[in-house]
Every structure is written in C-alpha cells, then in structure tokens.
Amino acid sequence: xxxxxTPEEESFRDEVRAFFRDKLPARLSTxxxxxxxLRKSDMEEWHAILNERGWLANHWPEEWGGPGxxxxxxxxxxxxxxxxxxxxxxxxxxxxxxxxxxxxxxEEQKKQWLPRxxxxxxxxxxxxxxxxAGSDLAGLKTTAVRKGDVYVVNGQKTWxxxxxxxxxxxxxxxxxxxxxxxxxxxxxxxxxxxxxxxVRPITLIxxxxxxxxxxFTDVEVPVANLVGEENMGxxxxxxxxxxxxxxxxxxxxxxxxxxxxxxxxxxxKKGGRALADDPxxxxxxxxxxxxxxxxQTTNLRVLAAVAGGGAPGAESSMLKIKGTEIRQxxxxxxxxxxxxxxxxxxxxxxxxGWNGEDVGPEDAAMAAPxxxxxxxxxxxxxxxEIQKNIISKAILGL
Length: 398
What we know:
Blueprint: H1 7-23, H2 26-33, H3 40-53, H4 71-83, H5 91-104, H6 107-119, E1 124-127, E2 143-147, E3 150-157, E4 168-174, E5 185-191, E6 197-202, E7 211-222, H7 233-249, H8 251-267, E8 269-270, E9 273-274, H9 279-307, H10 314-338, H11 367-373, H12 384-396
Parallel strand pairs: 1-4
Antiparallel strand pairs: 2-3, 3-7, 4-5, 6-7, 8-9
C-alpha cells in the first residue's frame, strides 16, 4: 500500500489544516492540549462547527449527510484533527449508531434519527454492558417483552459512558429467553426520558462522572423503535462493535500524543542529558514509533474495507489490540518523562478556568490521570483477550 499522498490529497490536507486554524476555537484546543475536562456544551459546540461544514459524519454516505470522502481523506482528517488538538467527536451517535441505522434501519428510522444525530437534537449513549455481561456480552439479562405496540423493558446496564447527558440510548435486550444466547437478542432505541429509567453515576478515582449505571423498570418502548428484525440484534451489535473498536484504537490521537511525548523527552533531563537520549527510554520510544507506523497501515486497510462497501473484519480487532497497547504505552512513557511533576494530583487543575499554580509544565497535571484512565482501553469495547479469540476464529479458523 502506497502511503504517500497525491498532490490532490496534499491539497486536501492544506484545506483541513486551514479549517482547523480558522474554525477550531482556541479555547477548545487549549483544553484538549492540556488534558482539561470538556463540558457537554464544549463537545456540542465542536459538533455544530463540524456539522456546519458538512464534516461531522465523514464516513456516512452523501445521501445521509456525509461529505463523500475517500479513505485517504478520512485518514488525513483524523490525523490533522488530533494534531490540531480538536475535541474528539462523541462516537455514540455519529460513529456507532449511525452506520447501524444506515445499513439495517428502516427508511423511516433513517429519516427520523440520522438528521437529529447530525444537528445535535439527540445525544446518544450505548446500552451494552451489564453486571456479569461485559466481555461475555451475549450473556446480557435485560429483557424486552412485547405487549401490543410496545416492548416492556426491565434490567440494568453499566459503564454507560456520558449517559448522564443522553437523550436516547441504543440498547441490547433479550427478547427470546428460550433461544441460544446470541439468537434471542434485539436492538432497541429508547428515550432516556421514559418513565422507569434511572441513571446513577459511577464516580471514578479522579472524581469524574464519566460512566453510569442505567436501570429500567417496566419501561415502555414503541415497537417502531426496534432496529431490523426481532432476535437479530446480535448481528447488528457485532457490526457496531467493529466501528467502536476502530474508534478506540485512536490512531490520530496516538500520533499527536507521541509528538508531545517527544517534546517532553527532549525537555526533561536525566543525568545531565535529555531523557530522549537515555538508551532505555529511547528504545521504548522507538518501539512505539515503529508500532505506530505499522498501525497506520492497518488503519488504512480497515478504512478501505468500509469504503468498498464492507464492514471492518478481524482487522478492527487487530487495530483495537495494538491501538490500545500503544496508547497505554505512550501515557506510561509520558508519566515517566514528567517524573515527580506527574505525582501531585490536584483535581481542580483538570477543570477549565483553574487559576492555581501549576506544578511543573502546564500539562503535567494530566499525565497521571491519563495514564490510569487509559488502563480501561484494553478492556472496554471487548477485552483484548476476546479480540484475540475473534482473530483466531476469523483468520485461523480455530
């Protein structure tokens, strides 16, 4: 695969860079660069800017609001977005539910929900994991019993990222308890304002409410909100997860983080010389750089599969494994590079508008929280061990 860009692609990259220079608010890029927390309003602001340009859902077909980009154009945009320190697009509506509706949803569902994803009318969250049904997702126990024109949903979801902000949740539910695990699951779209839904925050070690528990007690959901066919939800769930795993890999963000790591390693000193010149540290950085270059090629292959009309296959699992390992290694090396400056933990320093005195370089405060938060990457979206099983079955036939 030729990784060099054509003159047309170089021109497109210039266009993207100009867009970020002119349209990305400096306030937002500063928050991202310094690892500060983004509010819902910050994320919505950036979504609106992208949507106005027609670049929010850059992998959707043009008929549903996508820009009609090539694989390379999307690759360029993702990389330049990370390098410009743009906020990451909240993936649940745009990157996860959108492709499922486009492929499996009815025309009515596409017309109803896709425009609302783009214009920000609906904030979506994901109802997959449950207590006891995370990596073994097919073991989920939340039920949906059909009664006339509605399904009555009872059960619990957990680790629901940003669910406290959500208007809607796409949810896996069991509609046939007598069937085999994977064969009795359906895919429902549920209004989070429905009577019987309770959201309880899970406060993380850094004090942040990033994830939640969601409880359903006799929640009525219109049958019209069933995506595809009843009891076929596992097929749709797997299709969605290939997009989620590709997104988790975060190739562009790894590139941007690695560039920052190289800067820090040059600034920090060890034994009178730059940390980047320390043989052991330099060797670890070189390993990351090599893996990152290889991962870019894999990322292009996955994007090419989607552009050809297919869905990401086992390659998305490879990308998820290697991508999360690289991101974890980069945060580990960054924390090591900052040394004692990464040790003090001041939660207020992660909030926008904090005017206290920095301990060390301005972004050292986020080194330790980022390191610990990114421990989850190899677990969620299907643990890396599960991804290895998927690869062995899909490619090796084991």
